[in-house]
Each structure stands twice: as structure tokens, then as C-alpha cells.
Specification:
Blueprint lengths: L16 H18 L1 H22 L3 E2 L6 E2 H31 L2 H6 L5 H31 L7 H25 L9 H15 L11 H7 L3 H13 L15 H22 L9
Antiparallel strand pairs: 1-2
Helix pairs in contact: 1-5, 2-3, 2-5, 3-5, 3-6, 3-7, 3-9, 5-6, 6-9, 6-10, 9-10
Pfam families: ABC2_membrane
Family: Belongs to the ABC-2 integral membrane protein family.
Main location: membrane
């Protein structure tokens, strides 16, 4: 995952790193939109799951009578969190594993394109997809299920940094985890079970307060739990904080845990990233 500076060509130097990254992001977005099955899954999965939970639970409430909220509202933060995870961690881990397996990374490495531009292009693609996906999900929740949206600027500021930090962390971890996949054919079998386990244990598919204490503790070791909790602080009313295991939204700890995973992902990614397949030297 090391970077190198753009090399001069016979006609002069390559454009600046940000111009190259923007151009690479455009390529990545076009490539992503051509994979229609992936587009449908990444965009529709959180929406369908929100619709499913809203339908199954109906008018039931999370929390005690009088202070609880309906489950469409309660599960919205978890669906946003899982959407971010799908757009960042899962998408990058799968895509990079496939690109390594089919020789795309090897060919790119032989071009003057700096490695940093390649990774920045990936991150820009993830941010674009996650932003559109999240905006659509929030709009559907508000319009179809009457989920009230925050009215305070501070809540949206919290949403912004949790979203950006969570997306960056998921992206870095996706790049790092791609090195654990031995081939493009096995990528789904390696990546998707990890995503599913984290979803079931991090307050995405079940109210986090209803999980056993030992499972809550185990989930607290991973970033998805903190991403979902940070988003709950934005979309749920203040009195719902009593359902959190600590009795607090723990926003400082949320930022700290996500930052630690971000740094850890960078370190592991830099040390383990490979441009070629295991059997290609």
C-alpha cells in the first residue's frame, strides 16, 4: 500500500495527485455502476431491511411505553451504519480482491499512476456511493415511515463526523482485509460472513439493549457497534440514551474507537497490501 510519486513522461510530468485521484474516482464510479447486481444490493439492501423491520414490528415500540419510539425510527441508524459498511468495507474488500486476481492491480502498478491516486479514487467512490445511499435511506424513512429528522444543527454536525469517520474507517479496513482473501472467487465466502456476524451483534438487526451482556461486550471491540451507536445519538430522542448499556451515547469513545480502527487499518494495510496474487510472485 506504499505510495510513489508520479514519474515524468516524455511529454512532461503527470498531472497533480488530486487531478489523478479525481480521474481515477470517475473510473471507479463508472466501473461500480456497471455492476448492476452490486449496485442494487448496496443501495436496496438497507432500504429493504428498514421496510421489513417497520412492517414486522408495526406500531410496537423500542423502549418503555411513553418514552419509546417505533422500530422504523429505532432501526434507521443501524440501517445507515450497515449501508456505510456495505459501501466501504464490503465493496472495497471484494473489489480489490477481484482486481488483484484478474491482474488489474498488476497492470495498474506498471503504469505511471501513483498508488496514492488509486486509493484516493477508491475512497472518493465509496464516499459518493455512501452519501447517495444514506440520503435516499433517510428520505424514505422520513417520507414513507414518518421518521422525524433532527432539527438541531449540533445533531447534524455529529452525524457528519460520525458518517465521515465511519466511512473512512470502513474503507481503510476494506483495503486491509482484501489481503486476507486468496482469490477473487473466494472473496464473497470470506468477506460476507464477517459482515453478517457484525450486523447481528452490533445493534443492526436487533435492538442492542436486548443482546446478552457478553455479546454486547464482544461487539464493543468492533467499529460497527460504535458507528451504529453514534448514529443513534443523532436520530433517537435524548431519553432513549437510557437503553444504552452505559447509559450514555459515549460520543468521545465512539470517535476514539473508530480512530483506533482507522489507524490500525492503515498500518495493517500498508504492511500487507499486495498488487499481485499469492501465486504470482
Amino acid at each position: 500500500m506504499s505510495t510513489h510519486t508520479a514519474r515524468p513522461t516524455g511529454r512532461g510530468r503527470l498531472p497533480g495527485i488530486w487531478s489523478l485521484a479525481l480521474a481515477r474516482a470517475s473510473v471507479e464510479l463508472r466501473s461500480f455502476t456497471r455492476e448492476r447486481d452490486a449496485v442494487v444490493f448496496v443501495f436496496l439492501y438497507p432500504i429493504l431491511m428498514l421496510a421489513l423491520f417497520a412492517t414486522v414490528f408495526g406500531s410496537e415500540q423500542a423502549g418503555s411505553a411513553g418514552t419509546g419510539v417505533d422500530f422504523a425510527r429505532y432501526f434507521l441508524p443501524g440501517m445507515i451504519a450497515t449501508g456505510i459498511m456495505l459501501s466501504s468495507f464490503q465493496t472495497l474488500a471484494l473489489a480489490i480482491a477481484v482486481e488483484r486476481d484478474d491482474g488489474t492491480l498488476k497492470r495498474l502498478r506498471a503504469t505511471p499512476l501513483p498508488a496514492s491516486a488509486y486509493f484516493l479514487g477508491k475512497v472518493a467512490q465509496v464516499l459518493a456511493v455512501a452519501t447517495v445511499q444514506t440520503a435516499v435511506l433517510i428520505a424514505i424513512a422520513a417520507l414513507a415511515y414518518d421518521v422525524p429528522l433532527p432539527s438541531e444543527a449540533g445533531a447534524w454536525l455529529t452525524f457528519a463526523w460520525v458518517f465521515v469517520l465511519g466511512t473512512a474507517t470502513g474503507s481503510v479496513l476494506g483495503v486491509a482485509f482484501s489481503s486476507a482473501v486468496r482469490s477473487g472467487r473466494s472473496a464473497s465466502a470470506v468477506v460476507i460472513p464477517v459482515v453478517l456476524v457484525l450486523q447481528f451483534t452490533s445493534g443492526v438487526f436487533f435492538p442492542f439493549y436486548s443482546l446478552p451482556a457478553w455479546l454486547q461486550t464482544a461487539a464493543s471491540l468492533f467499529p460497527l457497534k460504535w458507528l451504529a451507536q453514534g448514529l443513534r445519538s443523532v436520530f433517537l430522542p435524548p431519553e432513549m440514551v437510557s437503553l444504552e448499556p452505559s447509559g450514555s451515547w459515549q460520543l468521545g469513545l465512539t470517535a476514539g474507537v473508530l480512530a483506533v480502527w482507522l489507524v490500525a487499518g492503515l498500518v495493517v494495510g500498508i504492511r500487507t497490501f499486495r498488487w499481485r496474487r499469492h501465486d504470482d510472485g
